[in-house]
Amino acid sequence: MSEVTIFSQTTLSDKKYPLKEISFEKPGHGGRLVKHLHEIYYRPDAVAVLLVDYAQRSLLFTNQFRVASFINGNPSGNLIEACAGLIDEGESPEQAAIREAVEETGYRIQNLEKVGAVYPSAGGVTEFLHLFVAEYNSKGDHEAGGGLESEGEYIELVELSFEDAKAKMLAGAFNDAKTLLLVQHFFLNHSE
After folding, report:
1. What are the per-10-residue average pLDDT scores of the chain (192 residues)?
2. Which of 75, 96, 119, 182: disulfide with 87, CB 3.0–4.6 Å?
């Protein structure tokens, strides 16, 4: 099989993260080489962590405004999501998951378990998303959470019982991909 050849990379925008137009050639049907022109958004890798309180049988989510969902038909723009964020330079995915849990929810997590990693939108974004499940104590002390004001975050917490979260999943009410993956993973591997 022939290799992929990159002909050019043109930066279209470099405001926050680079958006580049990539001209390349790759094998198509029957090994015939096919030329392509794609726009690729170079986002850093990220983490998502589903917080679970087994004693209280609850899952903790965030609820925040997402402008992309708003302009694509979500009337409120808000999404219920697993805690998530970008991995800072020099940080491991595990360190990022622990940091994000405190920043967004205020809870210190325990028993962090990596359950996979995915490209959430490989057709146009470089981001690689590390997926975790961790425990939190809903009755224990915790910090304020709510996200970082310096990043313009305003995060509300949503705590759902196992039963309510499962019903929401089965009704197709989780519209965020990382959250749906983590909730499905949890219920596939959690014995009631």
Report:
1. 84 94 92 92 97 97 94 95 97 97 94 97 96 93 63 83 96 96 95 59
2. 96
